[in-house]
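Continuing the batch. This is chain 6 of the set; chains 1 through 5 are on the previous pages. Same settings as before, nothing changed between runs. Recording input and output for traceability.
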Amino acid sequence: MGNEWFRRFGHPTGPARSESRAPRLFCFPHAGGAASTFLQLARALTPDFDVLAAQYPGRQDRRREQPLTDIVRLAEALADHVPDGDERPFAFFGHSMGAVLAYEVTRVLQERRMPGPAALVLSGRRAPTPRTSPHDRLSTDADILRAVRQLGGTTPQLLDDPELRDMVMPALRADYRAIGSYTWQPGPPLSIPLTVLVGDRDPVASVAEARAWENLTTAPARTYVFDGGHFFLDANLPRVAETVNDALGHLTAVPATR
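Output for chain 6:
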């Protein structure tokens, strides 16, 4: 898949997949994040999965584009670029704001009666409710920077450098506006398996709040608790990769055409 919305960090190759094409895993980053967030996870999951990470407008190589400030609009734009005629099964992985997007893109595809993911992996995010989380309602740069520092997902030196900070603020402002204005609209439950990942010391998503995702599907769902805060993924990469492999093991590769 080659388009401006997704980046592929490596093709699934090697003896285990030499005669097949691996199932795809579409990854959605956190607020302010970029596709490169998933570089290490992609490497850990290759060759079992063909990992593609979303590149939202307004960051890295799309820095000159206007960021979207509405979750539903962003989900619709992402949904336009997921189905591409490829018959391979696929799943979604989303962290923090990306978990909401993985869920909403799934609902958009469902509404359009288009092929959807065979499973969701939702990380570092409480399940949506009709009430907006106070952690999402941040209106000033000072509030956003304070929250980003608290969560620990951005190198402090980057935020301390005025020039670098000015480069990342447009994306952060847009994403926090998007997630802060997001209002969950109840609808039919999903019918695909959910795997929920959460850090045991996450300041914005308790284990109980994350586990509530399990109520949004009629299929099997399970929550895994990791040691760490909001960005527990980095410190637990081997176990996260193992959990994803186990959760998505039912996805099978498609034999290569000759």
